[in-house]
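Fill in residues.
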């Protein structure tokens, strides 16, 4: 199946779109990040699902992120 996956992050006071994207990317890859929630939309029109990797790791469903 095909999916569309998105991740959202608020960036404040960036001078340019590139700077905003860079700030978001730095937050995403930081080892202690909490930016681990994704929204996944199945391309078949099914209901979207939120996937929180921190929550899944805390529940022991995946390896620690």
């Amino acid at each position: 199946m095909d999916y569309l996956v998105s991740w959202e992050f608020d960036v404040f006071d960036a001078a340019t779109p590139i700077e905003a994207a860079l700030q978001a990317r730095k937050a995403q890859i930081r080892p202690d990040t909490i930016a681990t929630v994704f929204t996944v939309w199945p391309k078949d029109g099914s209901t979207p699902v939120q996937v929180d990797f921190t929550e899944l790791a805390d529940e022991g469903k995946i390896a620690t992120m």
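The first helix runs from residue 17 to 29.
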